[in-house]
Amino acid sequence: MNPHNPRSRFARTTGTTLLLLPIGLTLASDGRAANDWEVSVGGIVNAY
Predict the structure, then answer these.
(1) What is the C-alpha to C-alpha distance for residues 1 and 8, in angstroms, rounded to an integer?
(2) Residue range of the domain that includes 17
(3) Which residues of 1-35 are buried (b: 16+ CB within 10 A; e: fewer)?
(4) Is position 25 within any domain?
(5) What gap in Å lies between CA 25 and CA 46, rounded to an integer?
(6) What is the DSSP letter of 3?
(7) For 1-48, how does the pLDDT look when each residue is reduced to its tens digit (9 = 90+)?
(8) Counted domains in the chain
(9) Residue 1 covered by a domain
(10) 3-state secondary structure of 2
């Protein structure tokens, strides 16, 4: 794949955006639930 090809670069950028967008939306909408999320992750880590 030619990295200088605008189409391939656009496709890669679009793919990355589609992957990150739901994560960003989740973090933004669940900002007040961040503490619960940290507690959940801490519980999972402590389980191991």
Answers:
(1) 7
(2) 6-47
(3) eeeeeeeeeeeeeeeeeeeeeeeeeeeeeeeeeee
(4) yes
(5) 27
(6) T
(7) 566 777 888 888 888 888 888 787 777 666 655 566 566 677 667 766
(8) 1
(9) no
(10) coil
